[in-house]
Amino acid sequence: MVGRSHVGKKNRAKVQLAALSLVIVLLLALVVGTDVRLNQVGADVKVVKVGVIGSSDDQIWKAVQAELDRRGEHIRIELKPFQDAIYVNQATANREVDFNAAQHYAYLEDDVKTNHYQLAVLGNTYISPMNLYSQRYAKPSQFQDGDRVAIPNNATNMGRALKVLADAKLIGLRDPKATNPLPEDVVDNPKHLHIEQVDPAGILNLLPDYAGGVTNANFVVDAGRSVHDAIHEVPYDLQNPANKPYINIIVTTKDQRDNPTYAAVVRAYHSKPVADTIVRVYKGACLPAFKVS
């Protein structure tokens, strides 16, 4: 009896071990199968690298991603931030990013002319204000003789900043309608302002050492400030052709301008949820420069 019981126990143990092994095999098969399916879904997702300036537009691109997901597009946006548009266009031309959203028409035209990039516009994004800021004064008329004023050191934004100072009645320009006036085009400077060209990202940090500074809205938002802190705001009417050079755009290489994946991203960008996000993020200061699709 003892022998038979011992044999019975051994047989039961073998059966239990076999059953356990079968369960483990089935579980492994399930896990591997799930992993394969996940990999298959992942393989369908197209990653699009987008060059941007700073982090001020992060919420906008999150809204674009949400719209792509809602539309069932298997596209994932991956942002690559830069400090200056100079490097963004270079990275786009070198295919380090697929496209960028970091400049307006005037900047692109000047950069292409200078560096001979083969770049093309995919679509509009928004028009961003460039205003005059100061920690010393509440209005432009309070500027004193010989005050220093900081403006961006790149050609197109420098010209735009000079137009802001002209709009504030601080200087006069030879041709007020010129898109990119130069310092030598200043023909009237009644307060003998010292207008100095500096990195636009650091202009707000120069105040109040400088009496005033003109810079782009994205740098203001990145600094945790409101564009409405400006002591002089320039109104922008999208119907006015004179403002087209300052509409921000999405840019890629010429050979990719008909890329269907990029077109899907632009369509998602030109949606009402994204337009609403632009208005919310910039508190109405930036205007969507596209027709909602």
TrEMBL record:
UniProt keyword annotations, A-Z: Lipoprotein, Membrane, Palmitate, Signal
Any one Gene Ontology cellular component term annotated for this protein: membrane
Subcellular location per the Swiss-Prot or TrEMBL entry: Membrane
Gene3D superfamilies, alphabetized: Periplasmic binding protein-like II
Topological type in the membrane: Lipid-anchor
Family the entry assigns: Belongs to the NlpA lipoprotein family.
Protein name per Swiss-Prot or TrEMBL: ABC transporter, extracellular substrate binding protein
Provenance organism: Bifidobacterium mellis
